[in-house]
Amino acid sequence: MKTPADCETMADIRAEIDRLDAELVALFAQRVGYIDRAAAIKAGVGLPARITPRVEEVVANVRRHAEAHGLPPDKLEKLWRKLIDWSIEREEGHLGQGD
């Protein structure tokens, strides 16, 4: 693993981006495991996939984390809302509420 400052060539940069992308996909896979488990729990207690107050809590958390890391919170919110929508669609599929 090289820091951005340690990268001297585009090959170095590309290798690190590819490494990070693999790590991000692995993290998304872990997140999906929790989404699937949430769907199972929700099915057992009669909750819907979309719980708006929780969606807004997640978005607020992401905005806070983005600001703490010097990233644009509006851009991260937009990206995360897509992730949340995808997650809810997945849950709806498990709950028999999707298409």
TrEMBL record:
UniProt name for this protein: chorismate mutase
NCBIfam families (alphabetical): CM-like
Top-level taxon in the UniProt lineage: Bacteria
The enzyme's E.C. designation: 5.4.99.5
Residue span(s) of domain Chorismate mutase: 4-95
Gene3D superfamilies: Chorismate mutase (1.20.59.10)
Phylogenetic lineage: Bacteria, Pseudomonadati, Pseudomonadota, Alphaproteobacteria, Rhodobacterales
PROSITE patterns named in the record: CHORISMATE_MUT_2 (PS51168)
A Pfam family hit: CM_2
GO annotation (BP), single: salicylic acid biosynthetic process
InterPro entries in alphabetical order: Chorismate_II_sf, Chorismate_mutase-related, CM_dom_sf, CM_II_prokaryot, Isochorismate_pyruvate-lyase
